[in-house]
Each structure stands twice: as structure tokens, then as C-alpha cells.
Amino acid sequence: MLNTSHLGVGYRNRIVINDACLEVKPGELVGVVGPNASGKSTLLKTLAKLLKPLSGTVYIDGKSLAELSARDVAKKIGIVLTERVQSGLLTSFEIVAMGRYQYTDMLARLTPHDRQVIMDALRSTGASSLAERRFSELSDGEKQRIMIARALAQEPSILILDEPTTHLDAKGRIEIMMLLRKLSRMKKIAIIASTHDVELAIRLCDKLVVCSSGKIKVYDVPEQLVEEGGVEELYGFNNGLSFCKDTLAAEPVINDDEDFRIFVIAGGGSGVIIYRLLNRLGYAFTTGVLHEGDIDFIVAKSIGGRVISERPFKEISDDSYTEALRELQKSDLLIYASPPIAKINQRNFELLTAAKELGLPIIQYIRESNIGNYAMGIHFVDSISLLANMLVEYCKGLSKDKDKDILVAKTE
Amino acid sequence: MSRIVFRQSKFFWIGALLLLIPLIILMSITIGSVDIPPEKAISKLVNLGEPDTTSIIINSIRLPRVIAALAGGAALGISGAILQVFFRNPIADPYVIGVSSGSALFIALAIFMGTSLGIGNPFSPYTLYIAGFIGALLVSIFMIFASGIVRSITTLLIIGIAISYLASAITSILQVISDIERLHVFIFWIMGSFSGVKWLFVNFLLISIIIGIVSSMFLAKPLNAFMLSENYAQSMGINIRIIKIGAIALTSFLTSIVTVVAGPVGFIGLVSPHISRHISDTSDNRFILPTSAIVGAIITASADLAARTLLMPRDLPITAITALFGAPLVIALLLRGGGS
């Protein structure tokens, strides 16, 4: 129903996106993503006929957008923009009623049918209870629902939204995107929304349009973008930030403190929280032996830990064990995450015993949910805040000792 | 349900305000240097057959004056309401588009340079009306032209203000080089007053304001959409260019006529929309435009009555009265309402 052929968008002489070919069908939610200034808004404004294309054509139901009258466009396309609305004393109902512009008489008098469309629009965005409230007094999330209802009141077949989640909190962002998904299916309309929230768009949209370096690339299956490593590329993730394909999360990598060596024995998800703690505190770490595909393996890798691993569902081999032991010997501290132990990772328990024999300081962390396998650890904590405090104290002590060593070395 | 009650209360206020108008007319024709009892005044109004001093006072002096004030106030009120929405600026008033400065410049030219330019008697009110109207018209035409080519409404606002400064600059130079007698005439005009207005101009004003109010109702619906934003308005299928030109043309037309007849009457265009929004408790321009016209008419006629009676027999400048009483009222309203 909406498609473009070799569309070029931009302002006057400045082309922002060139040669864009896109097709959107009824009932589809299309996410438009891309870095700042990649032309997302410009593209959407061109699709909505707020800007003239620099080249190419936008078609709606096979007709060129340029040939449709403003009136017809208003009945086909509803928009929600980022612009601040000056609503004065208007109620939400009155704002939504403006969506009936092309359907009402010169004095904008509402027929019973108009009222019904307005109430339907409010209901479908979950905003019926806000109808009589003053728009200016609503929260950002509520305002967004009203603005979406206003666009729906135009009874459009295409809804175009520019950054509808921008000013919202985490919950609000998800709610609005889920609402859009629901509306696309319920009302069988095409919804095109730009967003900064790539992770959310991958999870919810039927199609992704990626804008970058003057081009668009359409992904009919958003997961394809992940598999291609497109997200990292899109945002130019490099040092300091990584994107985890498996958890769809952007991870800051900040564990660059190599003053002391921390080894973590984990597995089966017992290590994730400890890796995050170490990363946040800035301590580099080594962990093992983890089976590939274990959530501990995935998270440790994505936040830049050194990981000694074994192939999935294989018993820990001599090679991996020896490598881990070698690392352990160079370590200043061992954190034992109390992983569930079974035949395939039994040698992790041996590693713990070896560490004790080496006289390595050991902290064992036991989560409430993780009972069993009480090792004869030296320190023994059951809350993450205790573990954090202990780590900070301990590492402070360690670096002081190291400073002393350096001093001694210098004076000698 | 509550909606219906709401709407009725808006209409109630419009009705109540309309009832004030005959009251003000009656007060204005009875109070003055010669007090006329109301029943006599009414009988003179109805029965124009036997002219005497009283009927001359009423029909040639007081009645045209109060009607001019009502019509002029309505024109300013409605223009202010349109421009505040149009410029998305609550302190916009009809003079931001430079019309009064244009009038002032041409009236100054007529008064100070009239003799050397050979325009007959530079002190005749007709000369001044014509000069003022030409000035207002030129600025209006320029603003309409600008509104057709400028994309941003804010830019248009700045152009209007720049024109005001330009015209005021030339006017002030003319004032400095003129003689005292001419300066006095000019200052009397620029302070603004409805005194001595002729029926010819009253009729002209009345016809204009009726045209103005009717055409403003065509603007109410698109102006509501403009409140959201220009882009939203466009997405609802509104022809932005036509509305821009229409709003500027209508307001400059109305403002020009008032300014030429009564000089620049400040404050009415600024406060009437604010008062209207307060009493009708909405920003819906279908209510605000007519209510602003009525509020503007009432304030202006009351201020005019005060202007000519407070320090009788002197006529005070009407802007002084509107500001003196209007400003504290508006401040109080805004502080109480938390600002609209």
C-alpha cells in the first residue's frame, strides 16, 4: 500500500538519503533505525508529504503521493511528530477531535459518528480515561497516547511516527511500541515509526529500515540485522561498548584495571552478576572453565572478560583444565560463584581445591537460589553488596602492597 | 455528560458578555460633561424626530464615539486572538505586524511634511485618515507578501517587529525636526482616542468589523490545528499558505482601520484573548475568537468612557486607561490561574 521507488530525500540541495526503495503492507509495524542525523525524520516527513522528495516517488495504493490532494493525504496518513504541542487549555478529547478535521464542517462540529471515532481512537490507545483531562497536564507517555489517538481519528491507513518513544522512560517506551504493534494488527494499518531503540525495534517490529551513510537497507526479518552484525556496524560500536547478539544488549566494557588478577569459577548462569559487578568496578577478570553457549560464557565474552572455554556438553578437557590452572597460578584472588556441578564440569571443583592448595585468597559467593556445593572457602558471602565491599577493600590492599613493592624496588 | 454542561457554560459566557454591551452604550450616552437621564437618552435614541441639544450630543458625539469604541475594540480583540495563536506567542498583539507603525509613519509624514509635499491642509482629520490608511496598507501588503514566501512563522514575527522599528525610526526623526504645533497634533494622535469620530468612519468601522468577525470564523478551525504545530496542521490537509495569508490579511485590515480612526490603542489586543480564555475556560478558537471580540469591545468602550469622564473635561489617552486598569487585572488573572 505504501511503496517508494528510488526516493531521494533531503532539504534543498542537501540529499540526506538517496535511492530508497521500500514497501510497507497493511498490518505491518516498520521500525526505522539509524544513528543521529542519518535522515530518519527526513525520510518519514517525505513519506508523510511534509517534505517534497528530491527525486523518485512515494506511492500510496499505487497512486503517486504528489498527485493526491492534501485532503486525501490527510485521510490516508496520520502522523505523530516530536514537536512540542501548544495545547493551551484544550482537553485531550479536543486534541483527538482535531483528527476529524477533514470530516467535519467549517465550524468543526462533531456528528455522533465523529464522536464515536474519537472515543474508539482513545479506547484503542488505552486513553479513554484521559479524555476530559487537560492535555498540558498529562505525563509524556499519556500525551503520546493522545497524539497517537489523534492520528488514528483521521482514520488513516498509514500511521507515521517520528521518535514516538523519545521522551519516555523504559516502561513507557516498551508500552508505546507494544501499542503500535497491537494497533497495526487490530486496525490492519501500516505503521512506520523511527526510534533510537534498536534493541526494542528488533524485538517488536515486523520490518526494519536501517538508515546510514545516505542509504537505507530494508530487513524483512529484523533478526537478520543481528546475525549480520549490523547493529555494531550501525552504531560504530568499538572500544568501550559492545553489542551482545544473544541478549540484544549494548554492553559498556569498562574493566580495564589490570593491577591484579581475579579469577572467577562459574557456570550455568552463576557468574553473570559477578562479571557485571567486576566490570562496573573496573576490574579485569579471567573466568573458566565455561561451556560455550552458557549464559556465563555469553555475558563474560560480551563485557570483555578472558574466557577459558570448553565445547558444549563435553567434559572439561585436559587442555582447558591446564590452561585454567596456569591462569589460576598467576591470579591474586579467586571468586567461586558456586556453580551447579555435574560430571561435565566437575574439574571446576578440582580447580577450587587446587587454588586452596596454592594458598590463593578465595571468596565464595552463594546466591539464595543456589544451595549446595558449600566448599571450604576462606571467605564466604551470600549477598552481592557484601561481595562488592569485600572486593573493593581487598583490591585496595593489594594495590597498596604492589605500590610498596615498587617503592622497595626503586630504593634498592 | 459533563461535556455538554461544559459547552453550555461557554455559550452562557458569550451571552452574558453580549448583554453588557447595551448597558455600556446606555452609560456612555448618559454620562459626560452634560449628564442625560437614561429615560431621556433612550427616548432620544428611539425617537429621532425632534432634534435639540440633547439629541445632538447623543447622535453626533456620544453615540458614534461609543459605537466606534465597541467596533474598534472588537477588531483589536479578534486580531489579537488570531495573532497569538498564529505566532504561537502569548504576548503577540495586533501591533506586532507593524501596522500601527506604518500608520504612524505616514501620519507623521502628512503632519510634518504635508505642507511641503502639498497635500492641502495637513491638520484635517481626513488627510490624516487617508495618510494613516495608506501607511497601514503598505505595511499590510508587505506582510502579506512576506507571509507567502517566509516558511517560518517566527521569522514573520521578527520581520513585523523589524518593520515597526524601521517605521518608528523615521517617525522619531520627523518628530525631532518638526515644530511644536505639529508635534502636538501628532502626539495627540499617537496617544490614541476615539474622540471626535465622525459617523462616516463609524459606519466604515462597523462594516469592517462585521466582515472581520464573519471571516474570522473561517479561521477558527484551522487556527485550532495550528496550535498543535504547522506540520500537524499540514498533515490534516490544511493549506498553510492560504491560512498564513488569510490571518495576516484579516488582522492587518482590522488593525489598520482602528488605528487610522483612533490611533494606536494598545493593550486591548493583548489582553482580550487572555481574559476570554479565562472566562470561557478553553483555548478552542471557535469560542475564543468571538469572545475576544466581545471582551475587546467591552473593555475599549468602558476605557473610553473612563478616558473622557475621569478628568472631565479633559480627554485622557485611551491606552493609558486600558493599561492602568487592564494590566493589574490581567496580572491577577494570570497569577491566580497559574498562567495560561
Describe the 3D structure:
The complex is a heterodimer of chains A (412) and B (340). With 412 residues, chain A is an alpha/beta fold. Chain A folds into 2 domains: 234 residues, P-loop containing nucleotide triphosphate hydrolases (Rossmann fold, 3-Layer(aba) Sandwich); 155 residues, TPP-binding domain (Rossmann fold), CATH 3.40.50. Chain A has 14 helices and 18 strands. In chain A, the strands form 4 sheets. Chain A has a 6-stranded mixed sheet with strand order 6-7-8-3-9-10, sandwiched between helices. Chain A has a 6-stranded parallel sheet with strand order 15-14-13-16-17-18, sandwiched between helices. The longest helix of chain A has 28 residues. Chain A is elongated. The N and C termini of chain A lie far apart (81 Å). The C terminus of chain A is likely disordered. Chain B is mainly α. Helix content of chain B is 79%, strand content 0%. Chain B is built from 13 helices and no strands. In chain B, helix 3 packs across helix 11. The N terminus of chain B is likely disordered.
Give the class of chain A from helix and strand content and strand pairing: alpha/beta
Q: Which protein chains make the most extensive interface, counting residues with beta carbons within 8 Å of the other chain's beta carbons?
A: A-B, 36 and 27 residues
Mean pLDDT figure of chain A: 89
Integer tally of domains of chain B: 1
CATH superfamily of the largest domain in chain A: P-loop containing nucleotide triphosphate hydrolases
Classify the fold: give the CATH topology of the largest domain in chain A.
Rossmann fold
Largest sheet, spatial ordering of strands of chain A: 6-7-8-3-9-10
**N-to-C series of helices and strands of chain B:** HHHHHHHHHHHHH
Radius of gyration of chain B, in angstroms, nearest whole number: 20 Å
Beta-strand residue percentage of chain A: 15-25%
Uncertain residue ranges of chain A? 405-412
Q: Outline of chain A, from the CA principal axes?
A: elongated
How many strands of chain A? Answer: 18
